[in-house]
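User: Fold this; tokens only.

Assistant: Input:
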Amino acid sequence: MSPNEALIQNLKDAGCTPEFIKQFTLGRCGSEERLQLQRHRAKLLSDVHAKEKQIDCLDYLVYQIQKSKTQPK
């Protein structure tokens, strides 16, 4: 795999769109491209945090359900 192919595969694996990959590979990796990568990373991290919050809500719901089943009525 050539360095350019490896770069493209890495961008795909990171969830970058085909348009972004095209622009990135044409840009010769300047400051604008690095800024775009930082923005993409920030969005991915924000998405992760949102999913973590959803998981926490589900965990709490499961906890409440289990707690209500173990308490005498």
